[in-house]
Amino acid sequence: MNDFDPFVAEWITYARNPRYSLVEKCLKLAQTLEFPDLSLSHYIQKLNSMGEELRNSVSDVKNPTYLISMLNEYMFDNLDFHGDGDDYYNPRNNFLNIVIDKKSGIPITLSIIYIHLGSHIKLDLRPVGFPGHFLVKYSEEMILDPFNGGMLLDVDDLQEILDTTYGDGIQFNPDYLNEIEPENILIRILKNLKNSYMQSFNYKMAMHCINMVLGLVPDSPDEIRDKGIVQSRLLQNEFALQSLERYLELAPEADDVDNVLDLIRSIKEKANQ
Description:
The chain has helices spanning about 5-15, 20-35, 40-55, 65-80, 95-100, 105-120, 155-165, 180-200, 205-215, 220-235, 235-250, 255-270; strands at about 80-85, 105, 125-130, 135-140, 140-145, 150-155. By secondary structure, it is of the alpha+beta class. The chain has two domains: about 5-175, no CATH class; about 220-270. Strands 3-4-5-6 form a four-stranded antiparallel beta sheet. A two-stranded parallel ribbon has the order 1-2. Strand 4 (about 135-140) and strand 5 form a beta hairpin.
């Protein structure tokens, strides 16, 4: 199915290696897609220097509320990291090196930095893949929003995020606050980037993102469907049909089956003209 993409083969090996941290894998993702000359060690050192400065600024008090307030003060007041509300959908907000340099980003990249800095003062912060808005938690009680200065959120705040993102159709579910695994964080970043590339008609880069996801989860129906769509737009019709038919095998009850069947018909009609 035209699966091998040498562009991403090295990335898949790296992303699957448990020796590398999430920060390293995010930087490798940026290097693979847009920044071939990026020095991973330079940005890791930059983050670690910030973490050491934070550690040197806190007292011996181990109270988590105190430590979180010190982390917030350091990251958002001293360093001036902030959410990029003006250019939220800029794909560059998904690249950790860019976010470190410009001190602004989206919830997922700011959360990764927040957790990393917190580890330097022994804060056991966990990533939360909340629908539409990445968050961080300390234990099960404290839900924090690095996009909004590390604000502490309650259930009403979480429902408001859902309403803003999806309208009134989704009710808050405690499962939305489950910790998200590092691999799924990488996949979420890649899906963000895929959507950005698709919107700007950069199908070659969108295909790289799809192949990077499929390198981690080979039978992801949505990515196989999107691969078929991108292949059709790149006029790789034979491969597109294989991908789309594979999608129908994997997700025969999906809501968009009729649309996919229409696309398959269209591709076959063009091939017969």
